[in-house]
């Protein structure tokens, strides 16, 4: 299991990636499994400048899945077995003229993620995700629920963009891994909630889009939802409520 | 102006509505302009049982618009001129076998609304709204932005339903009032984010849908996003940030 974790960022396996990105002048977001010197393990991501510098690190806050295997499932998410919840909070960094926040996979389903990043000034949220077509247990709800996986993915991200007036760039694992088909659907979402670009296939694919920060700044001036917030009414959101063992998410 | 405000609920004008609903055994949600004995004014709503009892009252928390008229606009939202922010918080009441929360109009655009109600146990959120096709200032962003009004309406409510595993019943003012055309779009949304029913026209219309609470309870067991929340990471959401005069919302 240790072989899946990175101890340095970039470690020896990743040096060629960092070197090539620097040669091309490309900044990027990279998700990985992190193991610290103390042995702590996080589902993590870094933001890397076009000069190959690691500008910031994020550790995934919302861990889905379970800590114990369930023999009744053909496959399942066991993130809670292999990772600890992120302890770095939500942060924003300046890169390529934009204030950029990061999150990972299940974080994108939580409205708190986008809101916390927007309140820290994010104009763009970058994230990676890895979501199967089939959710274990979905057939216990209604036969068609698995068909909603792609719509749920877009719905949460589009709402996050619209409600906070920010861009979202979402990069999906696609294809079939160990027999599990992923939904793919990498996309770029405008602050209006519009899909600017989306992957057309479930294969390897590169999508591109123009992130016009002037557009989002104009957008926020008119649809300035943030100005209408009433934090004094949100106390319940930060109180601790019953938590379960996990969820298939 | 005083004539638009209710001092009692139900006041004399509304007694026939309450009597007819009681005769038919229909519970309902009703939005109104409230003026208290002390002269305070709220954008308010009540939840009424099939026996005509007022079970609960909500006062709108997120007030859009401005306090001062802008002569450059053909029309504008001046809610901040005529109302105070609601001071009753978010609450949930038991009615017809369901835990029901209320909100009003712009509240539906805020993820905090659904989250606060869900954390208080809401299985169903009822709301009314009154949204024009044209948002003053939208043309300063991009020519097509007004075309997004209906999608933004559905997007925020569908995401609220999905992220909290609850039903939403949204009742819109439709048609043209004082020359202003409304988007209408009254709808019923399932905890999966699916539209169960939606008004087909921009005229007076009744829509119906079956609210299956067993479905939502099964749904929440599998997609138990609430169990994955990390309130310790949400501190920014309840801190006070810069607020402006208002927003066209």
State the low-pLDDT regions of chain A, or none: none
Question: Biggest interface and its residues per chain?
Answer: A-B, 69 and 68 residues
Distance between the termini of chain A: 24 Å
- Order of secondary-structure elements of chain A: HEEEHEEHEHEEEEEH
The biggest sheet of chain A, with number of strands, parallel, antiparallel or mixed sense and barrel status, is: 6 strands, mixed
**Structural class by helix and strand composition of chain A:** alpha+beta
How many beta strands in the DSSP annotation of chain A?
11
Number of helices of chain A: 5
Binned, the helix content of chain A reads: 10-25%
Average pLDDT number of chain A: 94
Gyration radius over CA of chain A: 18 Å
């Amino acid at each position: 299991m240790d072989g899946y974790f990175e101890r340095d960022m970039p470690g020896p396996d990743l040096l060629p990636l960092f070197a090539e990105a620097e040669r091309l002048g490309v900044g990027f977001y990279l998700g990985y499994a992190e193991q610290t010197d103390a042995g702590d393990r996080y589902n993590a991501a870094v933001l890397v400048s076009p000069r190959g510098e690691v500008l910031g690190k994020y550790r995934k806050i919302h861990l889905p899945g379970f800590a114990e295997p369930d023999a009744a499932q053909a496959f399942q998410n066991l993130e809670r077995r292999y990772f600890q919840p992120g302890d770095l909070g939500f942060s924003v960094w300046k890169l390529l003229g934009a204030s950029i926040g990061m999150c990972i996979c299940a974080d994108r389903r939580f409205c708190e993620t986008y809101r916390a990043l927007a309140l820290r000034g994010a104009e763009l949220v970058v994230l990676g995700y890895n979501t199967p077509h089939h959710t274990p247990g979905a057939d216990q709800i209604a036969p068609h629920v698995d068909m909603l996986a792609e719509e749920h993915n877009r719905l949460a991200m589009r709402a996050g963009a619209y409600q906070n007036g920010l861009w979202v760039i979402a990069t999906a694992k696609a294809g079939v891994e160990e027999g599990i088909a992923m939904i793919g659907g990498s996309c770029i979402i405008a602050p209006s909630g519009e899909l600017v670009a989306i992957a057309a296939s479930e294969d390897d694919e590169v999508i591109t889009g123009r992130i016009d920060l002037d557009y989002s700044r104009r957008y926020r001036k008119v649809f300035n939802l943030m100005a209408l917030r009433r934090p004094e009414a949100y106390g319940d959101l930060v109180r601790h409520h019953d938590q379960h063992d996990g969820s298939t998410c």
